Amino acid sequence: MSVGSAMMLLIVGLFVSPASASSCVGVRVRSGDNLQLKINARPQGTTFCLEKGTYLLRQGVLVKSYDRIIGEPGTVLDGQNVVVTGLWGYGGSLGQKNVVIRGIGLRNFRGEAISAGWNWLVSRSNIRNSTVGIVISNGIVLRDNRIHHNRRIGVTGGPVNGALIERNQIDHNNTARNDVGVHAGGAKIIGGSAGSSKLVWRGNWVHHNIGNGLWMDYNVRNVTLEENLVEDNTAIGIYYEVSWNGIIRNNAVRN
Fold first, then answer.
1. Has this prediction a pTM greater than 0.90?
2. What are the backbone angles phi and psi of residue 21, rounded to the nearest 5°?
3. C-alpha distances in Å from residue 237, one per residue of 17, 64, 120, 129, 240
4. Are 162 and 139 in contact (CB under 8 A)?
5. E strands, 100-166, where?
6. pLDDT in tens, 138-166
7. Are 110 and 87 spatial neighbours (Cβ–Cβ below 8 Å)?
8. Alpha carbon distance 91, 203 (integer Å)
9. How far apart are alpha carbons 208 and 231 in whole angstroms?
């Protein structure tokens, strides 16, 4: 696959306009509202339509299973460098599962901007200026996001199984210049003794990270990395370390 073809995939995926909350049918939320109280007052499976504006959070937002958090263009959740985690849920079968996050900007969290439960869909969101962009969990679909300028790493998680990460721009992460040989850079999946498996990384643009671009670290099995453009990272572009049964094909890796 040529670099030009890879870039075409990225153009299709990364520059789709976010869904508008004005067309969202659900509970309307304004920037002066307390989003957590809105969620607490509704049953699981509620759609929340966030109007444009900056939401200055004083605490992390724990969602409920099957909730949908939809933002119109210009919606930003700001942790003010005080809140540890932005949008979050517990993993596992008893955690907050099957949540949709779409069209949300998240910035300035001391920890993770998003810490996902099982089977979440996170799309068309701008995740930046936090210590960690997103911690993924089993069954996540991470699609058409920009994840950038986070202090340690853009995407991480593990052990994790059955995840799809496609058409994201993951760039300029590890701004705090943490040790790139430990846990920093663009993206890192950890297998550990339990192992991570059945992840697909497809059509992502991973660039200008301080550290490795895409790093699968120890006991990460049956992973497919394809059609990614990985360039201008300071360490290894695609690092498949002490892992097996991976398919690495049709990527462009340079500089």
1. yes
2. -70, -20
3. 29, 37, 27, 22, 10
4. yes
5. 100-102, 105-107, 112-115, 121-123, 126-128, 132-135, 141-143, 146-148, 153-157, 164-166
6. 999 999 999 999 999 999 999 999 999 99
7. no
8. 26
9. 7
